[in-house]
Specification:
Blueprint: E1 31-35, E2 41-42, E3 45-46, E4 52-54, H1 57-64, E5 83-88, E6 97-100, E7 103-109, H2 117-126, E8 132-136, H3 161-170, E9 179-181, H4 190-207, E10 211-214, H5 227-236, E11 246-250, E12 253-255, H6 273-280, H7 288-298, H8 307-317, H9 319-332, E13 334-335, H10 338-351, E14 361-362, E15 366-368, H11 375-382, E16 392-397, E17 401-405, H12 420-437, H13 447-466, H14 475-478, E18 479-482, H15 491-495, E19 502-505
């Protein structure tokens, strides 16, 4: 209260704040997903190229999914990849084939129909996901009507670099996201994927508020021997800027996200049953039951049977058809790990904090891996003497199942920033203190303000230390905060309007290598 403003006699109350401002920790696990969705509209408004925050999978369905038709109709399919059975003259060199009636058939997709974002969101929420931002850069494009050549890498022409880059730039206006995820980046060409990854790392580094989680092209169907070329291509494509703000996981994971009702005969040959008929009901050995079902599909009765009813009948009547659907379902369930890792990180942060490594933990919904890496194979991924770009492995262990087995950033040779929890802990501390310090902008640059800021940050770091986020037997060993003339500022700094605060923290590093030494010791007991 300004006493000079008091003019009238009376009693005046002057309330003084007894407690200083405090630092409130920012959210640490808020992923931003960029990619293609079934729809992007809500209540008549388009949400294409809009950074929309959601809090649950139900929110995602409301904004980005096809509405379900009235019962008793089956729920709308949100993702419908197309596959083809291509007969081969000899046994294919890759493993994506089946033997049907003595003939080899490669089972390959129409690349224009392959997308990953929808199922990655489902994986995110299965693994404990919460708040997230969705940037839909468009809906699904038209199918090509033809399969890729067996053994080729999937490149979806409907997935465009410019679309994904535009979605990335929208995040320049959002400070809350702490993870950037673009599962469909692996559907780009190698050159376009490289451009996108470098842009994501650059943006994360400039903003200092998020890390990028990458998947690796080739992680869906790695060659047991030549997979190292995919790793080398990835390392060559990530550049040298902002590596400590990026992390990568390998390989893809076989999931249980899609279930039997999600794949049926409409996912084969573009829905053309006439191409499926000779494979599951060969003319040389026809089955009248299968023939009747196929005729009913092509010439529906009145009332017509639903797709689910016809599909169930085919599954029961034809063992070959059942095997084909099972195979396609397994292939469609091979997904990039980034969406699941966002959920794993969210769960770890909620249970402990960002200083806890999101590793040595399982992935909900992970049922298989396209390659089972050994210790020797992982060694070359985890440590690379040339580029220093570490890649985290997802591995299978007998008796334990599938575990995340790595917690490094891409900056694997940097002693300061090689570990993901270290980088994320510093982001948490930096952003929390930055937001709290904004309350002191334009305050007098004097001793009172310096002590208030020092006390505020010190109290916050004490809480972090007590929760296990900083090393040290005491708070003084865990961190220090300094602000003042002659210590962090000069007279020129004050004249130029600068208040410099120096914070030093002893961040927890994960125990990545545990060495136990055994040594034989001679018996010293007395002998009779």
């Amino acid at each position: 209260m300004n006493l000079s403003n008091i003019k009238s006699p009376g009693v005046y109350i002057n309330e003084i704040n007894a407690f200083p401002n405090s630092v409130v920790g920012v959210p640490t696990a808020v992923p931003a997903f960029i990619g293609y969705t079934p729809l992007a509209s809500y209540e008549g408004k388009s949400y294409t190229n809009v950074a929309q925050k959601i809090t649950s999978f139900a929110d995602f369905q409301a904004f980005y999914c096809f509405p379900d038709p009235p019962v008793p109709s089956a729920p709308a399919k949100q993702y419908s990849p197309q596959y083809y059975l291509v007969q081969q003259k000899s046994q294919p060199t890759d493993k994506n084939y089946m033997v049907i009636n003595g003939d080899y058939y490669s089972i390959v997709p129409d690349p224009n129909t392959i997308y990953y974002l929808y199922n990655s969101i489902r994986l995110f929420y299965e693994n404990g996901g919460g708040d997230a931002y969705i940037i839909s850069v468009g809906s699904y494009g038209p199918p090509s009507g033809k399969p890729i050549t067996p053994g080729e890498q999937i490149i979806n022409p409907n997935v465009q670099l410019n679309d994904l880059m535009a979605g990335l730039y929208l995040l320049l206006n959002e400070q809350e996201p702490t993870m950037y995820i673009c599962p469909e980046a692996t559907l780009l060409s190698v050159a376009d994927n490289s451009t996108l990854m470098e842009a994501m790392l650059q943006q994360c580094s400039n903003m200092g508020a998020a890390v990028s989680i990458f998947d690796i092209i080739g992680g869906k169907a790695p060659d047991p021997i030549l997979y190292t070329s995919d790793i080398e291509t990835f390392r060559n494509g990530t550049g040298v800027v902002g590596l400590d703000y990026g992390t990568a996981y390998y390989p893809f994971i076989g999931t249980t996200v899609m279930q039997s009702p999600d794949i049926d005969y409409t996912n084969l040959f573009g829905g053309d049953v006439s191409q499926l008929a000779p494979i599951i009901n060969p003319p040389t050995n026809p089955d009248p039951n299968i023939n009747a079902i196929l005729n009913n599909i092509q010439n529906p009765g009145n009332p017509p049977l639903t797709v689910a009813q016809n599909n169930s009948a085919l599954l029961n009547a034809s063992r070959t058809y059942s095997q084909v659907i099972t195979y396609i379902l397994a292939d469609a369930n091979l997904l990039p790990a980034s969406g699941a890792m966002a959920g794993v990180i969210t769960t770890t942060d909620n249970e402990v904090g960002p200083w806890q490594a999101p590793a040595n933990t399982s992935i909900v919904g992970a049922a298989s891996l396209p390659i089972n890496l050994t210790d020797t194979q992982q060694a070359n991924l985890n440590v690379d003497a040339v580029s220093g770009k570490s890649i985290n492995s997802i591995r299978f262990f007998n008796g334990l199942g599938i575990l995340v087995w790595g917690a490094r950033t891409l900056d694997g040779n940097d002693q300061d920033w090689r570990y993901l929890p270290v980088r994320r802990t510093l982001i948490f501390i930096e952003q929390s203190c930055k937001l709290a310090a904004q309350a002191y902008i334009y305050q007098p640059n004097d001793k009172n303000t310096w002590e208030a800021v020092t006390s505020m940050i010190g109290s916050f770091l004490t809480t972090v230390w007590k929760e296990g986020g900083l090393m040290g037997a005491s708070a003084s060993e865990a961190f220090s905060v300094a602000c003042g003339l002659g210590t962090t500022m000069t007279g020129d700094d004050i004249l130029n309007g600068f208040m410099n605060v120096v914070v030093k923290v002893a961040v927890i590093h994960p125990a990545e290598f545990i060495l136990i030494t055994f040594q034989q010791e001679m018996s010293v007991g007395s002998q009779v």
